[in-house]
Specification:
By secondary structure, the chain is an alpha+beta fold. It has helices at 12-17, 22-29, 69-73, 89-92, and strands at residues 8-9, 79-81, 84-86. 23% of the residues are buried.
Length: 96
């Protein structure tokens, strides 16, 4: 969930093995891993929007590296993609 909206639903193996939504990827990348000790992490750009006044379209669009104009104006529906339910225009359009 991001700002109270479901962005991805998947089984544990699918979610941890092949996350689809950029927010899920960001969260999983933030988990320290023993084999990556000392690896530089890429910080997520932007600030978390106000949950009382979320952005239009996809709530994650201000921080998403894959966001385009459609993401800024149209809220993505939760669609099924290879066994995962994800709400992301970039996934739907095959951009990620």
């Amino acid at each position: 969930m991001y700002l109270g909206r479901i962005v991805e639903v998947a089984g544990k193996h699918q979610l941890f093995g092949q996350p689809r939504h950029p927010y899920t990827r960001m969260l999983l990348d933030a988990i320290p891993k023993m084999h990556d000790t000392g690896r530089a992490r890429t910080p997520v750009s932007g600030e978390v929007p106000n949950p009382l006044n979320p952005p239009s379209g996809c709530a994650f669009n201000p921080r998403c590296p894959f966001a385009n104009e459609r993401c800024r104006v149209e809220r993505p529906a939760l669609i099924e993609v290879q066994g995962t339910r994800v709400a992301c225009h970039a996934v739907e359009e095959g951009r990620i």
